[in-house]
Amino acid sequence: AKVLDASTLSFGTRVRWFAICFVAGIVCSILGTALLWLPKGIKPFAVFYTLGNLAALASTCFLMGPLKQLKAMFEPKRLVATIVMLLFMVLTLCAVFWWNKRGLAMLFCILQSLAMTWYSLSYIPFARDAVIKCFTSCL
């Protein structure tokens, strides 16, 4: 149980590893974006971009603990967002490695980013409602 519960780590250690994972996620995403402009750079882009999102997602495990994080991810208010986010991560990798569809991979990366944003907004009280209200008032 101690291995699965990050609360056995000191607060400073948890914050440090959160920051390391979060920065690693940002670096992977930026590196992936830079690799996109190389010839045949779509595969490294998709891999690094997806790894970046996974690292950013994993970073919160250090703050909350892995079990608490998983429980929070699959709460009813986040269930659809979590499934969609993970689905687009898998589809992004499928598009570049199995289907060899560059445009589809780009579309899935964009949708992955939007799904990750929608998922993240679920942790901020009333943030989703504010975004929906903003978009409906703009339309």
Describe the structure.
The chain has one domain (11-124). By secondary structure, it is mostly helical. Helices cover 79% and strands 0% of the residues. It starts with 10 loop residues before the first helix and ends with a helix. The mean pLDDT is 87. α2 (42-64) crosses α3, α2 runs parallel beside α5 and α4 (76-97) packs antiparallel against α5.
Please describe the topology of this protein.
Layout: H1 11-35, H2 42-64, H3 66-73, H4 76-97, H5 102-121, H6 127-138
For this entry, give a set of tags.
139 residues, mainly alpha, 6 helices, transmembrane, transport, protein transport, Vesicle transport protein
Taking pLDDT < 50 over at least 5 consecutive residues as the criterion, the unreliable ranges are none
* Coarse morphology: globular
Oligomeric status of the shown chains? single chain
Q: What portion of residues is helical? A: over 70%
Largest sheet: none
CA distance, first residue to last residue: 50 Å
Q: Residue-averaged pLDDT, rounded?
A: 87
The helix count comes to: 6
Order of helices and strands: HHHHHH
Number of domains: 1
Transmembrane segments: 17-39, 45-67, 79-99, 105-126
Main location: membrane
Membrane topology: Multi-pass membrane protein
Organism: Upupa epops (Eurasian hoopoe)
